[in-house]
Amino acid sequence: MKTGAIILFLLLSTVVVCHADQTTIRLLEIGGPINPATTVYIGRNLQEAARNGDALVLLEMDTPGGLDTSMREIVKKILSSPVPFVVYVAPSGSRAASAGAIIALAADYCAMAPGTAIGAAHPVSIGGKPDAVMQEKVVNDLLAYVEGIAKQRNRNIELVRQMVSKSLSLSAEKAFEEKVVDFLAVDRTELIRILNGKTIQRAQGSFKLKLDGTKVVSQKMTTREKILNVIGDPNIAYMLMMLGFLGLFFELSTPGAILPGVIGAISLILAFFAFQTLPVNYAGVLLIFLALILFIAEIKVVSQGMLTVGGVLAMILGSLLLFDSPEPYLRVSLTLILLTVFLVTGFAIFVIKKAITVHRTKPATGKEGLIGEKGYADSDIMPEGKIVVRGEYWDAWSDVPVTRGEKITIVAVEGMKVKVEKAQ
Fold first, then answer.
1. Which residue, among 421, 411, 407, has the nearest Cα to 367 in the 3D structure?
2. Are 348 and 417 within one domain?
3. Alpha carbon distance 46, 73 (integer Å)
4. pLDDT over threshold 60, residue 129
């Protein structure tokens, strides 16, 4: 048993030494909200870093916050990572707010550039305001969560709690002074110099970072992660949804066009995929869908424009209600809403006007196309004779005599004969 324990200890020690001897620092960058794409991006790189034996994963962060579920997934991956993980809030002017602050606190070491800020991690409810009891539960749950992280990383527990309970924000200098973060570093080079020789704690023991001669390798998001990140933006998701509804509207108002329907269907699928990661109020979606129905109904029903007015109002209200969140980065830009509503309404009115014009256009072919046409009598019509209309000869009859050469108007068509009367 003792021999087995010694062998196991030597194996674990070898693993630890392997970590310390590697020469690659994997650099990640986040410059926007924390969302599922961010989770995939960080998780993939942590796995690759462990597989390649990288010396360090360095995350440079500037974020206003993001989704609680994504944040917790990222923290879970950081805390279970065998590779050291460092967060650097940089460059100057950046911030690690809300969910970003908690991710930074979960890192093995957290550093900040001068002129940056961290904090404001009070939970914000989305999709409707909860009652006081539920809000208290949410806050207490997050307080316990961040307190556990602060204890594990030896950070100032009281100030970390205040970040959640009182939305406390700290400057880089204050956060360093109060032991909320570990270092102040002007740039990445200085940070790596500071980290060199620092101790990393793991369940199997501790080891020191040996970063002399290491190279920094930047890892960008993959194409899939970039697409996921782009469509997760509320503005992009909103535009995809509107494009989808517009494509369906055009397809329904002009059956057989095919291409608008295909583009609309693809856009809607992407939009609803994005809605999984956003605080969507489906009353807004239903109002926008109602606007589409009202626009289509305007083509079929003569409402003197009232259906169109209702459609415009439903679209504006639906757009404003679509993403129910107090956080600006989880809402659609008001400018984009007004511009989109203006363009969509203008396009809908144009299509409606063209459709109404087509419906009211007199037929140019067949029996219906002959009624009302004018010509002249090629012979006396008493009561039958021949006429010339549009350069064609037709057998005709009339209830009143028509002399040859008189102008006539066709009033009815029966088989291959037409009924005429003298032109007024």
1. 411
2. no
3. 13
4. no
The answer to whether 38 and 66 have CB atoms below 8 angstroms apart is: yes
pTM for this model (two decimals): 0.69
Are 86 and 190 part of one and the same domain? yes
Residue-wise pLDDT for 211-237, tens only, equals 988 999 999 999 988 888 888 788 888
Query: DSSP string covering 55-119, please?
Result: SEEEEEE-B--B-HHHHHHHHHHHHT-SS-EEEEE-STT-EEETHHHHHHHHSSEEEE-TT-EEE
Say if 90 falls within a structural domain.
yes
Phi-psi region at 130: left, alpha or beta (left = phi > 0; alpha = psi -120 to 50): beta
Q: How many domains does the chain have?
A: 3
Name every residue whose Cβ is closer than 8 Å to that of residue 379 and which is 6 or more positions away in sequence: 385, 386, 404
Per the CB < 8 A criterion, the answer to whether 88 and 59 are in contact is: yes
One domain for residues 326 and 391:
no
Residues 197, 245: one domain? Answer: no
Residue 341, both tokens: 């509503």
* Domain match, 124 and 175 both: yes
Which residues, other chains included, contact 117 with Cβ-Cβ below 8 Å and sequence gap of 6+? 89, 95, 96, 97, 169, 170, 171, 172
Domain with 137, as residue range(s), is 2-222
Q: Are residues 255 and 218 in the same domain?
A: no
pLDDT for position 365: 56
pLDDT, tens only, 36-81: 889 999 999 999 999 999 999 999 999 998 888 889 999 999 999 9
pLDDT at 15: 40
Q: Does residue 227 belong to any structural domain of this protein?
A: no
As a whole number of Å, the CA-based R_g of the chain is: 36
pLDDT at 256 over 80: no
pLDDT of residue 8: 45
Q: Give 122-141 as a DSSP string.
A: -----SSPPPHHHHHHHHHH
Q: Which of 192, 222, 252 is the last residue of a domain?
A: 222
Provide the CATH number for the domain around residue 388: 2.40.50.140
Residue (of 197, 266, 277, 267) closest to 234 by Cα position: 277
37 and 185 inside one domain: yes
Q: Are residues 15 and 68 in the same domain?
A: yes
Candidates 402, 401, 400, 420; CA nearest to 410 is 420
